[in-house]
Write a structure and sequence with these properties.
GO terms for molecular function: GMP synthase (glutamine-hydrolyzing) activity. The structure is a single chain. This protein is α/β, with parallel strands linked by helices and about 425 residues long. α5 crosses α6, α6 packs across α11 and α13 packs antiparallel against α14. The protein has 3 domains: about 110 residues, Class I glutamine amidotransferase (GATase) domain (Rossmann fold), CATH 3.40.50; about 190 residues, HUPs (Rossmann fold, 3-Layer(aba) Sandwich), CATH 3.40.50.620; about 100 residues, GMP Synthetase, Chain A, domain 3. β4 and β5 form a beta hairpin. Bound molecules: adenosine-5'-triphosphate. Adenosine-5'-triphosphate binds next to α6 and β8.
Length: about 425
């Protein structure tokens, strides 16, 4: 490890990640650990320069009030006791809270004498070394979705171990327009990765035929994905490692000793027990913005690194009810038009997520002086900080009119365009 590190010890705060991020924003690497960390464990961590004991409302565990042990207090490292109360609201640490920032800055640099050497160049160099040490001359398998996390893992592993990596990209027929092609172009053609491209469209769509229940659809897609991936894995010889795009929030949200679990951390979970892989998770200490910075530093295209979030079941949950091929095509084509026009209008990166939905009912319209009976396309655009709540931004009317005109002209089977004005709550971001 080339970087100095500060440890954020969770003493019951709800703001551990904010504090860890604030330290990283100063250019110093930080990690969060549990309140019962021992001096011996800390001694094994590389380059720890100081400890932030981060207190807060969750300071009672199993009926006992927790406190920093004498062992840690006397371990020879500077300790800063921090208690950043948040009154129960969730928002990023306010930048204007200069006193707190200043205290932290002074602790990090004046007291701990930490070097501001946390940057992507050092991170990548460190990870390459660690990956090579972990993997040796063995082979690694990666499920590559084309999403930000697995793409950055692929690029990093390619740099570290090159041809020892095999990537599997599954086209389940529910990807956005141009996505599988981009994965093949970037990884196979440009980065010369061993890429197995599986076109499983027919298999997924026939499994989904007539299934209207959203939960059932998600389950079928998830289970079928594991099956396809497993089949490919069994065809390969001598693979001992499975790489995953686990990132820091996945780990933090899996729960600390003082906070309840937000969501379980899975990724390519659900693989059969007899496929025993050791995990390689080189991004597990990065926040999302750092993963993107890492992707840029590794030379991945901006459209991949800054891609908006996309649900695992893909367009399947935007083609409402039982998926049909023609309606799925209408979702894919209208989504492509929406993304193109948002990019032209300079909205890319300004609106957090935007996509289209095609419901499973028709309405009466008129086309070429004759009655038509076609589907509507619903446009959804939202802004959010944490995906727990979301707001609908005010969009330029002319942009919406252009999108509407193009969808009505170019997308088969559509005679109406609607705009979803609902914030979350009460609506969710996706419709299914
Ligand atoms: N179509 C696919 N082909 C190959 N692997 C996939 C595919 N879809 C998902 N995966 C694998 O499953 C993991 C979890 O999928 P999920 O849709 O939850 O994405 P994610 O956690 O946002 O990560 P990413 O940004 O890498 O897509 C991905 O990181 C990837 O390894």
């Amino acid at each position: 490890m080339r970087q100095d590190m500060l440890l954020v010890v969770d003493m019951g705060s709800t703001r551990n990640t904010d504090v860890a991020r604030a330290i990283r924003a100063l250019g110093v690497y930080s990690e969060i650990c549990n309140y019962d960390v021992t001096a011996e464990e800390i001694a094994k961590m590389p380059n720890v320069k100081g400890i932030v004991a981060n207190g807060g409302p969750n300071d009672v565990v199993d009926g006992q009030k927790i406190g920093l042990s004498d062992e840690i207090k006397n371990c020879g490292l500077p300790v800063f006791t921090f208690d950043y109360e948040d009154n129960g609201t969730v928002h990023p640490m306010p930048k204007e809270d200069e006193a707190i920032q200043e205290d932290l800055r002074s602790f990090v640099f004046d007291t701990c004498k930490a070097q501001a050497n946390w940057n992507m160049e050092n991170f990548i160099a460190d990870q390459i070394e660690l990956i090579r040490k972990q993997v040796g001359d063995k082979k690694v398998l990666l499920a590559l979705s084309g999403g930000v996390d697995s793409s950055v893992v692929a690029a990093l592993l390619l740099k570290a171990i090159g041809s020892q990596l095999t990537c599997v990209h599954v086209n389940h027929g529910l990807l956005r327009k141009g996505e599988p092609e981009q994965v093949v172009r970037v990884f196979k053609d440009e980065l010369s990765a061993n890429l197995i491209y599986v076109d499983a469209t027919e298999r997924f769509l026939s499994k989904l035929e007539g299934v209207a229940d959203p939960e059932q659809k998600r389950k079928i897609i998830g289970a079928e994905f594991i099956r396809v991936f497993e089949e490919e894995a069994r065809k390969l010889d001598g693979i001992e490692f499975l790489a995953q795009g686990t990132i820091y929030p996945d780990i933090v949200e899996s729960g600390t000793k003082t906070a309840k679990m937000v969501k379980s951390h899975h990724n390519v979970g659900g693989l059969p027990e007899d496929l025993q892989f050791e995990l390689v998770e080189p991004l597990k200490m990065l926040f999302k913005d750092e993963v993107r910075a890492c992707g840029v530093a590794l030379g991945l295209p901006a459209s991949m690194v800054y891609r908006q979030p996309f649900p695992g079941p893909g367009l399947g949950v935007r083609c409402l009810g039982a998926i049909t091929r023609d309606r799925l095509e209408a979702v894919r084509e209208s989504d492509a038009i929406l993304r193109e026009e948002f990019a032209k209008a300079g909205l890319e990166g300004k609106v957090w997520q935007y996509f289209t939905i095609v419901p499973d009912f028709k309405s009466v319209g008129v086309r070429d002086n004759a009655r038509c009976f076609d589907w509507p396309v619903i446009i959804r655009a939202v802004n959010t900080i944490d995906a727990m709540t979301a707001q609908v931004p005010q969009l330029d009317w002319a942009v919406l009119q252009t999108i509407t005109a193009r969808i009505l002209q170019e997308v088969k089977g559509v005679n109406r365009v609607c705009f979803d004005l609902s914030p979350k709550p009460t609506a969710t971001i996706e419709w299914e």
